[in-house]
Design a protein that fits this description.
Length: about 80
């Protein structure tokens, strides 16, 4: 995209590409899964999701939640 965007826009685009590491179709497919739709549970009195607290990465609510935003932490 270089040449079309100003420096700030190019930097933002590059950061986005680094953080959102799922392809558009991969993300669209993921968002349709039961795992994607089942995340976000936070216990009363806590501010961190159960999956993230577990310390596990793959197959956790935390991982599923990140994928909902386009970032797969397991590649």
């Amino acid at each position: 995209m270089t040449g079309i965007l100003n420096d700030t826009q190019e930097e933002t685009y590059q950061q986005f590409k680094e953080l959102v590491n799922m392809q558009p179709q991969e993300l669209a497919d993921w968002l349709e899964t039961d795992q994607s739709k089942s995340v976000g549970h936070v216990r009363d009195g806590e501010d961190e999701s159960v999956g993230h607290q577990s310390g596990e990465i793959a197959d956790t609510d935390w991982c599923y939640s990140l994928k909902n935003w386009g970032h797969d932490p397991t590649p």
